[in-house]
Specification:
There is one protein chain. The protein is globular. The protein has a single domain, classed as UDP N-Acetylglucosamine Acyltransferase, domain 1 (3 Solenoid). It is 0% helix and 30% strand. The chain contains no helices and 14 strands. This is N-acetyltransferase.
Length: 94
């Protein structure tokens, strides 16, 4: 993880996670193992990113969102508050 990443002290990141430069991860979020988050993303408060999730560049995820294993979120996507992704395998837009 680059020193250009902001990880709030109350957030938790498992091992083997890739986070791109300029990304900010806010309060109580959990980034699980083998996940990849691109550059310049904003991960809101209380977000759960499941194991193996891939998130592109310039993605904004609002508060209380859950993204589970198997989901890919492409570049430049905005996800509003309290959204849950379970079996959408390739997110192009929302």
């Amino acid at each position: 993880m680059s020193n250009q990443v902001f990880l709030h002290e109350s957030s938790y990141m498992d091992k083997n996670v890739e986070i791109g430069e300029g990304t900010k991860i806010w309060h109580f979020s959990h980034i699980q193992k083998d996940s990849k988050i691109g550059q310049n993303c904003i991960i809101g408060q209380n977000v759960n990113i499941g194991p193996g999730v891939v998130i592109g560049n310039n993605v904004k995820i609002q508060n209380n969102v859950s993204v589970y294993t198997g989901v890919t979120i492409e570049d430049d996507v905005f996800i509003g508050p309290s959204v849950v992704f379970t079996n959408v395998l390739k997110m192009m837009f929302l």
